[in-house]
Design a protein that fits this description.
323 residues, alpha/beta, TIM Barrel, eight-stranded parallel β-barrel, 11 helices, 39% helix, 18% strand
Length: 323
């Protein structure tokens, strides 16, 4: 049938009708809120490149975790800035490392909150790369043991999910084996499976103090031009034991999210990264866009593309609006 019998606007006429037929729904149930923890006490320091985000000491992080839980957000993702750095990134897997201390404190205060931890060495190495540097490049295989040690130490502290973001080949298998061998076979692995060498990470690298001191990460993170390769990366991580796979970034890679969702029957996460976040806030600050409306449209697009889980710095504000 054609116009005037078919009138698509009929179901758009009122807010109630639009809600009734809405295809994609955004809910705090599917949010993960990233948080940055630093040494010290009573610290809640604004991150200049990411308005609305902060560096928290462990004591203030606990307060923030409680507020996240009270908003109905089920999970946080922790990133740590250590007291000192070295070539091996030893702070990443230290028993009393910054993330390990934060996990213990958060789980003591808010035991039902799902605590995810980022597994990478870049915040902990003095050279800023995601693994052990040898011969001017990152040595894949010698890095795997350190990543596994980091994952085990986080889970021993109480982490519910570990999330390797380093993009070393074989790291999911090595982490899975290490967890199983130490009695943590029930702990989930969320793999940064398709992580691109993106220019959208700039604000995060300032926040995490993790920019490489030389070169770049293009030899281990994915080429932004490649889509089929992402499916190979995801397939390999699933084969190695990943329970959740992630696409990062999200907004500029909606096509990748869609391809992964169609190909694999496994929970798919998408990371709405710092550059995507900060650009919207910068435009809103200048009055060029309505920040809340653009935020919600962005999160809806990520969900519509097929993401089950959205890791986003907008989580708290979105949860307040969705209330």
């Amino acid at each position: 049938m054609t116009f005037p019998v078919t009138r698509m606007r009929r179901l758009r006429r009122t807010p109630a009708l639009r809600r009734l037929v809405r295809e994609t729904r955004v809910s705090p149930d599917h949010f993960v809120y990233p948080l940055f923890v630093v040494p010290g006490s009573d610290i809640r320091r604004p991150i200049e490149t990411m308005p609305g985000m902060f560096h928290f000491s462990v004591d203030r992080l606990v307060q923030e975790a409680r507020s996240v839980w009270e908003l109905g957000i089920p999970s946080i993702l922790l990133f740590g800035l250590p007291e000192s750095k070295d070539a091996q990134g030893s702070g990443a897997y230290a028993v009393d490392g910054i993330v390990q201390r934060a996990v213990r404190a958060v789980k003591d205060a808010c035991p039902d909150l799902c605590v995810m931890t980022d597994i990478c060495l870049c915040e902990y190495t003095d050279h800023g790369h995601c693994g052990v540097v040898s011969g001017g490049g990152v040595d894949n295989d010698s890095t795997l043991e350190l990543l596994a040690r980091t994952a085990v130490s986080h889970v021993q502290a109480g982490a519910d999910v570990v999330a390797p973001s380093d993009m070393m080949d074989g790291r999911v298998s090595r982490i899975r084996s290490a967890l199983d061998d130490t009695g943590f076979e029930h702990t989930a692995v969320m793999s940064y499976a398709a992580k691109y060498a993106s220019s959208f990470y700039g604000p995060f690298r300032e926040a995490a103090q993790s920019a490489p001191r030389f070169g770049d990460r293009r030899s281990y993170q994915m080429d932004p031009s490649n889509a089929r390769e992402a499916l190979r990366e995801v397939a390999l991580d699933i084969e190695e034991g990943a329970d959740i796979v992630m696409v990062k970034p999200a907004l500029a890679y909606l096509d990748i999210i869609r391809r992964v969702r169609r190909r694999f029957d496994i929970p798919v996460a998408a990371y709405n990264v710092s550059g995507e976040y900060s650009m919207i806030l910068a435009a809103a600050h200048r009055g060029w866009v309505d920040g809340d409306l653009v935020m919600m449209e962005t999160l809806t697009a990520i969900k519509r593309a097929g993401a089950d889980i959205v890791i986003t710095y907008f989580a708290k504000r979105a949860a307040e609006l969705l209330g």
